[in-house]
Amino acid sequence: MRSAPGICTQRRRPRSGRASGRSCPCRQRPGRRDERFCKAWHLRSLQLTHLTDVASTDQHAVKPWFVGKLDFAPAVVDLASDGFPLVGGRLDVVGGQSVAALVYARRKHVINVFVWPSETSDAALRSGAERGYAWIRWTRRGMRFWAVSDVATVDLEEFARRLSGS
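The chain above was modelled as a monomer; its predicted structure follows.
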């Protein structure tokens, strides 16, 4: 169920099936378990048929759409000539904060890129994979990036290198 940006209405359920009252992991600040959560957000976007709030292959239409909706402007890059066309963007929630979710494609696969401000210095690409989904994270120019998809790991790595400018 989607709610207003920054608000999660889900509750964690213990094995008994009753609500525990503890907050959903979505409310936690981004940290060590981010790869699991980013994979879950990627899957949620595919299951809810709510892949984009703004559907456009034009970076000059997607980037301005975020103005006034977020406290930052995500960099939106046109990678169509490299085989990664832009599909659009949407608002999502990571660690209780609103983030930009940029959506790209590779053949028939979806690549979600979650972007939010970071106070840490630039960090190199780090990656992992689990149950058929790969993720890559990095920090560049005060922004944290998480790319998640079921594309081949080599394709996701190429995408991340091109998007990060490395």
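The chain is about 20% helix and 30% strand.
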